[in-house]
Design brief:
The protein is of the alpha/beta class. The strands form 2 sheets. Strands 3-2-1-4-5-6-10-8 form an 8-stranded mixed β-sheet, sandwiched between helices. Strands 7-9 form a two-stranded parallel sheet. α3 links the parallel β4 and β5. α1 crosses α5 and α3 packs parallel to α4. The longest helix is centred in the middle third of the chain and has 14 residues. It is globular, with a radius of gyration of 16 Å. The two termini are about 30 Å apart.
Length: about 210
Amino acid sequence: MKIAVVAANGKAGKLIVKEALDRNFDVTAIVRGQNKTDAKKSVIKDIMELTKDDLKSFDAVVDAFGTFVPDTLSQHSITLKHLCDILSGSKTRLLIVGGAGSLYIDKGHKTQLFETPDFPKEYLPLAKAQGKALAELRERDDVQWTFISPAADFQAEGKRTGKYILAGEEFTLNSKGESIISYADYAIAMIDEIEKGDHIKQRISVVGE
């Protein structure tokens, strides 16, 4: 398969690139500056400068963009809208590295995790920004999107175990009562979804076993 990873130089992006290459995918890293991934192919462009022509040849595009600075949190919505606009009407899948804060804690899907009293205040602005981007994404019927939320404890330096639990819209714990996953195991889940998943126009979530 031929895929592109946008914001590939980030911690999640690099591991997604590596996982795809290990499975013999044809991978292009899309980065703003020097390509620091294992991908041999790269496109050096800001995400907002990407065009339809840049992405038209890919089976799937992974959006690994992320920002944590308060003044730039709106970029989650802005950049995702841009990717949706240039992929509009195409068969190319768009898979987004999401957040856990927007997961629901009830079967009726009325309350999101970031709305609970114990949600860490320092992560609230980010969770709201990612939740807003997801809400806007749900309005798109012209894009083959899949939004993948990690567990609440998303560990950049965590081990690659090769195991994970695939869940849906609801906040899910593993058998130890934990909501945890490493970036490496998340990368496995991302490539699994591209390779054999069919959660089109859906949000799914993944938790480490």
